[in-house]
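Q: How do we represent a protein-ligand complex in a form that can be generated token by token?
A: Start from the inputs.
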Amino acid sequence: MTTAVVLFTRDLRVHDHPALTAAVERADRVVPLFVFDDAILGSRYAAPNRVSHLLDAVVELRSALGERGAGLVVRRGEVLDAVREMVVEVRADELHLSSDVSGYARRREEALRSLARDELEGRLRVYTHEGIVLVPPGEIEPSGGDHFKVFSPYWRRWVALEHRQPEPAPSRVPMPTAIRTGTMPRLDELVDTAPGADLPPAGESAARTRMEEWFDGPVDAYEERRNLLAEDGTSRLSPYLHMGEISVAELVARVDRSQEGQEAFLQELCWRDFNHQMLAARPDLPHSDIRTQHDRWRDDEDAIEAWKQGRTGYPVVDAGMRQLLRDGWMHNRARMIVASFLTKHLYVDWRVGAWHFMDHLVDGDLANNFGQWQWTAGTGTDSRPNRMFNPVTQSERYDPQGTYIRRYVDELADVDDPHIHAPWEAEGTLLGGEGDYPPPIVDHREARARFLEARDA
Ligand SMILES: Cc1cc2nc3c(=O)[nH]c(=O)nc-3n(C[C@H](O)[C@H](O)[C@H](O)COP(=O)(O)OP(=O)(O)OC[C@H]3O[C@@H](n4cnc5c(N)ncnc54)[C@H](O)[C@@H]3O)c2cc1C
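Then emit the structure tokens for the protein with flavin-adenine dinucleotide bound:
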């Protein structure tokens, strides 16, 4: 009789879960396990918005497995200890998990392999499966390199591949009955503070509902609407992709490339794989410049605080920053504008901004967040590293009526349309009084000159 443990990580679903499917196919008994990992919970990565989403998703996973005749064993502590204990308790022959790309995930995988090989003297076999990205790092490589540093050639190769087809959820998971599954922790046992934001519902069924709504129509208009800040023109699937309540393979399989909007959507899913292959090749992506510009970043606490609180005096920047605080999510166009503003107008280190994002984003993701921050700061994969987004023209173009701004910046609710993008230009506007909207903390032209000089550009 073969017994397999399936270790869930950030792949919290039963549909298209190659590790679960393989275990069910190969073993007579399958033990699904999730570990609330102290190493992660004790780090800055464990932001309340994300941990809250994670917990709800794990609760739902337990019930989805319950409907399949199994349960989900939950443990709290070090992953290696929890797996060792479980493997010994159920006398497991196999361990299945999704491979992941961060330095931490790779060390975890290596530690599990060494547990199997050395401590358990080969009695346990470890199998990894592609459950997190679509195209695993290294599957496509540029000539003369081991990973792609530029998106366009990656996209051309990625889109031409024959992609993995999603697998159905197993109808039955044969879990032995005599296992203590463990109590689900409460959120306040996992994090010290409550989530600050108005978060979307978590869990596989919410993810699948959102996927259905998205492919039912809105996806076709993606190309036209994706940059319009006030519209619900993007999928909002990012939290579910991050925690794996939906698989990227399933989304890709649903895309109809003959529709223009859907092709553009596919390209964004490819960006996700692109950033993941980047993180796999450069585990220092969250810490070090990929292509250094030898920046000597400014250390300006007041400006950083104004940026974090959404009080820079640039309405579109402030709307984005307040959306982050209120919703735990930010529109992609706004992410680019605020990140460019911090790193270029204020000339503040991208790590400051990236970690502030990680503190609040429900979709906060090592590969995507740090990859895109470095892209915007010009230290990463952007081929035009010194490009700067002008917050006024971006605002005029992507929020022409100021609807997005008014939604998040209450002080500007009564400012008329022509002045909503640059209220300091309105005659008779008094800015900067108590409770008022602040005047701009930097002048665009001066900031631009300072940045270009610093970059020697
Ligand atoms: C400074 C900055 C920080 C970012 N931080 C994150 C982050 O922490 N987590 C995250 O998932 N995305 C991040 N992104 C990328 C992007 O902003 C979000 O993925 C997107 O806004 C999520 O909304 P959506 O699901 O509606 O996206 P859609 O436009 O519907 O796209 C579908 C999916 O494609 C992926 N995707 C879209 N755009 C990108 C991109 N540029 N790079 C990589 N993947 C992409 C996401 O998984 C997204 O859910 C960041 C972008 C910038 C500029």
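DSSP finds 20 helices and five strands in the chain. Residues 226, 234-238, 241-242, 268-269, 271-272, 275, 332, 335-336, 339, 357, 361, 363-365, 368-369, 372-373, 376 surround flavin-adenine dinucleotide (CB under 6 Å).
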